[in-house]
Structure formats: structure tokens, C-alpha cells
Specification:
This protein is of the alpha+beta class and 232 residues long. 41% of the residues lie in helices and 21% in strands. It is built from eight helices and eight strands, in the order αααββααβββαβββαα. The strands form two sheets. Strands 5-4-3-8-7-6 form a six-stranded antiparallel beta sheet. This is Transcriptional regulator.
């Protein structure tokens, strides 16, 4: 029988499993021995719990022997961010981009190793503009947002792709980071006929600046910057 003032076995097991999960999520790959030491467990106990988490998709053991967040953990994290803070936090940046450019601005996230999902939009103000694709998936390969989500774009920089996801459309995108992790991408999607190379680069600089501000100061957007005219 469990002691009246102490946790029972189920609670202790849950605490240990959650502790291991925290360590795995906080590091970019962790060894079994290091994870066990971090939460003050024997290697055998940590291995048993990690195997349970791995079977449920919450952690994954890669070929290098390191444990990393599994697909289920990533999926839950994306859902939490998308349903709560991420969309709300990005709304001011999306509006600022539209106010400066008149083009449609998107927030997207990765849904797996090969696809992304359009999560939110602020629709452009031009008569001819990109319409709402929220809820649609797109391939990471060959798309500007995909490059940003897959880690192919340096923080503070941007990708430009013309005729990628659809013809006659140019997209520019930049990664949104929380700490060192890419959690989303901001992008502008516009008709190619009015998006010259110079204009696309100007759009990219604006997108990268907004992406960099998202978690650095999520509630503040410079009013002067938001209303300044966009020069193509």
C-alpha cells in the first residue's frame, strides 16, 4: 500500500516519463546515459520508459543512437501552437505585411517530413490577389515556405520560389524561430506578373524582419513600419 503522504507508483512512473520527455524535447538529440542522469534514474529504468515513449511515437531513437522528439510529440506541439499562441502571435505580423505590401500573407507549419500546412492568412488588398489556402497542405520540396520550414533558410534571411506550388505565383518565405527551433514560416504569396526579382527581394526583407520579431517581442509591431508604403 502506498504511503499516505507520498506519490503512488503510477504517479512516480508518470513523473519519470515526463521528466525524460522534457529532456528529450529540450535537447537536439540526447544519449540514454545523459537523459537518465538528468532525471536521476538508472539507465535500465530510463531505457524502459524511453522504449514506452518510443512505442507511442513521443520519442524516436535515430541511427546515431540519440533520442529526439517523435512524430506524436511534434504533432501535439504544432497543434498546441496552432490552436493557441502561434496564430494569435502571428496575426499582427501578417497584418503588417499586408498593410505594407497589399499582398496575401500566410503562416504555415510542417506536418511531417514532406509536407506543410497553411495555418493562417491575412488576405491581400489588391484586386488580383492570392486567395485563402488555409487548411491546405503543400510539399516542402519546391516551395518557399517548405525551404524555411525544413531549415534551408538562415535566420534573418528568406527564400524566393516562382511557379512552385502553383504556376504564375511567386512566394517569399522566412523561418519563425522559438529559441533555435523553426516552428513556422511566414510568407507572402503574389502573382508573378507584378513580382519582379527586385520586388521579391524587398518582400523577402520585410517577411524576414517580421518573422524575426514574432517571438522576440510577440505583442509589439512598430506602427510606423506597419503603415510605411512598400516600394517595389
Amino acid at each position: 500500500m502506498a504511503a499516505a503522504n507520498g506519490p503512488d507508483a503510477t504517479t512516480r512512473a508518470a513523473d519519470r516519463a515526463l521528466g525524460l520527455l522534457r529532456v528529450v524535447c529540450e535537447r537536439d538529440g540526447v544519449k540514454l546515459a545523459d537523459a537518465a542522469k538528468e532525471v536521476d534514474l538508472s539507465a535500465s529504468t530510463a531505457l524502459r520508459l524511453l522504449r514506452t515513449l518510443e512505442a507511442s511515437g513521443f520519442v524516436a531513437k535515430r541511427g546515431d543512437g540519440l533520442y529526439r522528439p517523435g512524430f506524436r510529440m511534434v504533432q501535439l506541439g504544432v497543434q498546441a501552437l496552432s490552436h493557441e499562441s502561434l496564430v494569435a502571435t502571428s496575426r499582427a505580423s501578417l497584418r503588417a505585411l499586408v498593410e505594407r505590401t497589399g499582398e496575401s500573407a500566410y503562416l504555415s507549419v510542417a506536418t511531417g517530413p514532406a509536407h506543410g500546412l497553411y495555418l493562417a492568412i491575412e488576405e491581400g488588398t489588391h484586386t488580383v490577389r492570392h486567395v485563402n489556402w488555409v487548411g491546405r497542405t503543400f510539399p516542402l520540396d519546391g516551395s518557399a515556405a517548405g525551404q524555411a520550414l525544413a531549415g534551408g533558410v538562415e535566420p534573418g534571411s528568406f527564400a524566393i520560389v516562382a511557379n512552385g506550388v502553383e504556376p504564375d505565383i511567386t512566394a517569399v518565405a522566412a523561418p519563425v524561430l522559438a529559441g533555435s527551433k523553426v516552428v513556422a514560416a511566414l510568407s507572402i504569396v503574389a502573382p508573378s506578373y507584378r513580382t519582379t526579382e527586385e520586388a521579391a527581394r524587398s518582400l523577402g526583407e520585410l517577411v524576414a524582419a517580421e518573422a524575426g520579431r514574432l517571438f522576440a517581442n510577440p505583442t509589439v509591431v512598430d506602427p510606423a513600419a506597419a503603415t510605411a508604403p512598400f516600394a517595389s
